[in-house]
Specification:
The protein is 51% helix and 11% strand. By secondary structure, the chain is α+β, with helices and mostly antiparallel strands. The chain starts with 6 loop residues before the first helix and ends with a strand. The protein binds protoporphyrin IX containing FE. Keywords: Heme, Iron, Metal-binding, Monooxygenase, Oxidoreductase. It comes from Aspergillus pseudoustus. Belongs to the cytochrome P450 family.
Length: 454
């Protein structure tokens, strides 16, 4: 199901063939019935994450460090979430806008220099997303865009790590073996296992140290994640150094590839669908003419561009950042799933790409890219489309960073389209995709042309 990198379509195929509940492994059941989403993932549900997530926990100071994303123990998850949920809130997004604006300007300046040349957007959008999340997290760009390369091979290491995760994560006995191996000094010396998170941990520790050395007084102007976390710690004194490193490094892992994938999806579908491109351009240009857009499009302003918002949702519907099923264990007492009694401990999951193609929810043309569906639907239909939209997960463990990505994409895309006309320039008709937890794309080759008056 996962080996060939086509997990999203493989799951769609098995459900088309066998129906809404399919046994896909010795103890694994995949579900395609949207009514089961609240049962499995809803707030208050007793279904917990499986050891698959442990494969994505980094090691810090010789011990695995469960993050808010990988934590399987609900009490520990609640503890971690408690100290940061306000920082991720919608009202706090204005504090992060400045970091997005800085990076968008660097991106646009770089594109001006590359006008008319072949540009690989798969790389550039990833560099952009990484620099934004570094900037938001600890006011430090990694310099991917300035250096036009994968600095310290950070992106390459995640890719290799996820190829391990993709396969090893399917075998629970290998997961505990792997964790023990990672703790063993001789195996560490052999350097056989990818140190995916190593660089993220190092920069998180360095940024912590730099913050302390430069002194809080000097940093009063800082509104980044780290500065806010340190401010909280000063008031409550309950956030340890380890927990801080945990939150910072997790932002980098959870918030970079996911946003890059969603940005690629948005721009790919815009460029490949001339009618959509025309409409979104018109919406941006008209808002511009009415002086409703600032020099750097603000978050508030982009929320008033309904076609842009619909295009964003539609892109994430057809191409969600996470292409794998979201695995959970049935609680000890067992559970009724699609009319079947599943025993406690059964690995049960729902996959966003499967639900997002459900014609009862998204319409007969669910396989096509059509942002209008989000604007034309009746209030009742729209409610269902939103309720079952799984790009950010669901319920108790839904994505906490969602506001950051929606703000970042909503500001960046109109800013880019204001300045450039973008055309598809690949010799191939489509991009290439590969799913290893994240559903990454490559081969997004374009050419940019400066628009008049920019
Ligand atoms: C478009 C961008 C993004 C997508 C598509 C995305 C997707 C997801 C998904 C599907 C989950 C649920 C995983 C599960 O149930 O197994 C999740 C959880 C999470 N995401 Fe995101 N994410 C995005 C951006 C971000 C950003 C920017 C951050 C942080 C800066 C972030 C941090 C997290 C964290 C911490 C969790 C775990 C939440 C919890 O368990 O309480 N994500 N994300």
């Amino acid at each position: 199901m996962v080996y060939d990198g086509k997990c999203p379509t493989n799951y769609q195929k098995v459900h088309e063939k066998y129906g809404p509940i399919v046994r896909v492994g010795p103890n694994e059941v995949s579900v395609a019935d949207p009514n089961m989403i609240p049962v499995i993932y809803g707030i208050g549900s007793k279904f917990t994450k499986t050891p698959f997530y442990a494969t994505m926990a980094p090691v810090y100071q010789g011990e695995p460090m469960d993050s808010m994303f990988t934590a399987r123990n609900p009490a520990y998850h609640k503890f971690l979430k408690g100290s940061v949920s306000q920082i991720f809130s919608m009202t706090n997004m204005k504090n992060f806008e400045v970091y997005v604006d800085e990076c968008s300007q660097i991106f646009i300046d770089s594109m001006l220099k590359l006008e008319g040349e072949l540009v690989d957007f798969s790389e550039w959008l990833q560099w952009y997303a990484f620099d934004v999340i570094g900037s938001i997290t600890f006011q430090r760009r990694f310099g991917f865009m300035e250096e036009k390369r994968d600095v310290d091979n950070m992106i390459g290491k995640i890719d290799i790590g996820l190829q391990y995760v993709k396969i090893l994560g399917q075998f629970p006995f290998l997961i505990s073996f792997l964790q023990k191996a990672m703790m063993s000094k001789p195996i560490q010396r052999l350097n056989l296992l990818p140190d995916t998170m190593d660089q993220f941990i190092k920069v998180s520790v360095k940024s912590q140290l730099a913050f302390t050395l430069t002194g809080v007084m000097k940093d009063l102007q800082r509104t980044d994640f780290l500065a806010q976390l340190r401010e909280k710690e000063k008031r409550s004194g309950t956030i340890s150094h380890r927990d801080m490193v945990n939150h910072l490094s997790n932002n980098l892992l959870a918030g970079s590839d996911t946003t890059a994938i969603s940005l690629r999806a948005m721009l790919y579908y815009i460029v490949k669908n001339p009618q959509v491109y025309h409409k979104i351009q018109r919406e941006i240009d008209e808002a511009d003419k009415r002086k409703q857009l600032s020099k750097c499009v603000s978050y508030d302003e982009c929320l008033k561009l309904p076609y842009l918002q619909a295009t964003m949702k539609e892109a994430m519907r057809l191409h969600p950042g996470v292409g794998f099923p979201l695995e959970r264990f049935v609680p000890p007492g067992g559970a009724e799933i699609c009319g079947h009694r599943l025993p406690g401990g059964t690995n049960v999951s729902i996959s966003a790409p499967v639900i997002h193609h459900n014609k009862d929810i998204y319409g007969e043309d669910a396989d096509s890219f059509r942002p209008e569906r989000w604007l034309e639907a009746s209030p009742e239909a729209l409610k269902a489309m939103d309720r079952y939209f799984l790009a950010f997960g669901y319920g108790a463990r839904t994505c906490i960073g969602k506001n950051i990505s929606i703000m970042e994409m909503g500001k960046f895309v109109p800013q880019l389209l204001r300045h450039f006309k973008i055309t598809w320039a690949s010799p191939f008709p489509e991009w290439h995709t590969n799913a290893a937890w994240f559903w990454k794309q490559s081969g997004l080759l374009v050419r940019l042309e400066r628009r008049p008056n920019t």
